[in-house]
Amino acid sequence: GQNIDQPTEMTATEGAIVQINCTYQTSGFNGLFWYQQHAGEAPTFLSYNVLDGLEEKGRFSSFLSRSKGYSYLLLKELQMKDSASYLCAAMDSNYQLIWGAGTKLIIKP
Amino acid sequence: SQTIHQWPATLVQPVGSPLSLECTVEGTSNPNLYWYRQAAGRGLQLLFYSVGIGQISSEVPQNLSASRPQDRQFILSSKKLLLSDSGFYLCAWSVLAGGPYEQYFGPGTRLTVT
Predict the structure, then answer these.
(1) What is the DSSP letter of B53?
(2) Interface test with B, best of A86, A95, A103 (most B CBs within 10 A)
(3) Which residue on chain A is closest to B5 by alpha carbon?
(4) Which of A19, A48, B13, B15 could pair covalently with B100 via S-S, beta carbons 3.0-4.6 A apart?
């Protein structure tokens, strides 16, 4: 079957670094996506990885290892506005997104 | 630039009543369109997707239906709502031409069935 696993909740301190892990199993693979979702709002696209390695976008970076079925989202210099849920999603061979349940990130001052 | 609209933003409906949620996309042609539902504190559940006018694929058997009467319009309907239909309904679009295939979401409709 197809499955995405990510931690339910994480807590970090303002100004620190946090890494949110995601493991996936899909029928075929066409990329790994990360989305940010603030409470009560729609998800917004953060990053896309299809090749192994690290993609950096400002304070956010995303890593992919296809052989391990593993990805992580790295958030640096945490700000209070980064408090949100972070959704991991893998695209299968039919170009459908398989979604994780999301990781709620709590930032403390 | 592309924009996606959904309405209404919130809705409170009694059990057994009908439902119609509308989604429209501007600034792109022939998008793939999706309806998702998100229960409180949960991930996204794909309900329907469409690759073209009149082409609807259902992912979860239930009392909901979807239609795509125009290229950039996607409608979610129900004849009789159940309590379990409560949730946050999200419409999304993507284009599968050259990738990277990310989906962009509308603002969502929060539905409470009472």
Answers:
(1) T
(2) A95
(3) A42
(4) A48
Q: φ, ψ for residue A26 (rounded to 5)?
A: -135, 160
A38 conformational bin, left if phi > 0, alpha if psi -120 to 50, beta if neither: beta
Mean pLDDT of successive 10-residue stretches along chain B, which has 114 residues: 92 97 93 93 90 88 90 96 95 80 94 96
Distance between B96 CA and the closest CA of chain A, angstroms: 8
**Cα angle value A30/A65/A61 (rounded, 5°):** 90
The 3-state secondary structure of chain A, one letter per residue: CCEEECCCEEEEECCCCEEEEEEEECCCCCCEEEEEECCCCCCEEEEEECCCEEEEECCEEEEEECCCCEEEEEECCCCHHHCEEEEEEEECCCCCEEECCCEEEEEEC
Q: What's the residue count for chain B?
A: 114
Give the pair of three-digit tokens for residue B93: 């679009």
- Cα(A72)–Cα(B98) distance, integer angstroms: 25
Q: Which amino acid is at B7?
A: W
**CA separation for the pair B64, B78 (Å, rounded):** 5
